[in-house]
């Protein structure tokens, strides 16, 4: 179901704050920039893969809650909408992203192609904890 949305990803500005992580410690000097949402989506499409559910989760959270933080191994990236008026309902956000992702597939990577069937590696790390009495 296609739900109308007011603006395209290229028209939605986001503010990104990056903190480097060195030896497990977050740097105190963040880098900041403002870019269109489409630029960040394109970056994630290349980094995370064209069929990644992570992109949808990150972008829907950003568009519906106005802020999201993504932790990578070497840095933390905090994104927020520059204009809160760009906030969307969940159905609108999903529709916007589905349309954008459908238009972003390169010709050789159309959904259902042989390349789409490749295995994607996702690593989920649960924090280690010690059980009481197990020392």
What does this 3D model show about the protein?
- The chain has one domain.
- It contains 3 helices and 5 strands, in the order βββααββα.
- It is α+β, with helices and mostly antiparallel strands.
- α2 crosses α3 (90-104).
- 30% of the residues lie in helices and 22% in strands.
- A hairpin with a 2-residue loop joins β1 (13-22) and β2.
- It has helices spanning 37-48, 53-65, 90-104; strands spanning 13-22, 25-26, 31-36, 67-71, 75-81.
- The protein starts with 12 loop residues before the first strand and ends in a 31-residue tail after the last helix.
- The mean pLDDT is 81.
- Strands 1, 2, 3, 4 and 5 form a 5-stranded antiparallel beta sheet that branches.
Short account of what is shown:
It is built from 3 helices and 5 strands, in the order βββααββα.
**Total domain modules:** 1
- The overall strand count is 5
Biggest sheet architecture: 5 strands, antiparallel
- Count of helical regions: 3
Shape: globular
Which structural class matches the secondary elements? alpha+beta
Helix fraction by DSSP (H/I, runs of at least 4): 25-40%
Low-pLDDT windows of residues? none
Terminal Cα separation, in Å? 55 Å
- N-to-C SSE string, H for helix and E for strand: EEEHHEEH
Kindly provide the radius of gyration, computed on alpha-carbon positions and rounded to a whole number of angstroms: 17 Å
Mean pLDDT: 81
The percent range for strand residues is 15-25%
């Amino acid at each position: 179901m296609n739900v109308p949305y007011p603006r395209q990803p290229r028209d939605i500005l986001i503010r990104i704050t990056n903190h480097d992580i060195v030896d497990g410690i977050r740097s105190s000097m963040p880098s900041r920039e403002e870019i269109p949402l489409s630029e960040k989506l394109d970056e994630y499409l290349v980094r995370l893969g064209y069929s990644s559910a992570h992109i949808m989760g990150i972008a829907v959270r950003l568009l519906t809650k106005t802020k999201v933080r993504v932790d990578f191994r070497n840095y933390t990236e905090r994104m927020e909408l520059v204009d809160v008026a760009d906030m969307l309902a969940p159905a609108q956000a999903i529709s916007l992203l589905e349309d954008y992702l459908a238009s972003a597939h390169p010709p050789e990577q159309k959904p259902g192609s042989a390349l789409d069937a490749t295995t994607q590696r996702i690593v989920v790390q649960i924090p280690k904890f010690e059980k009481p009495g197990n020392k």
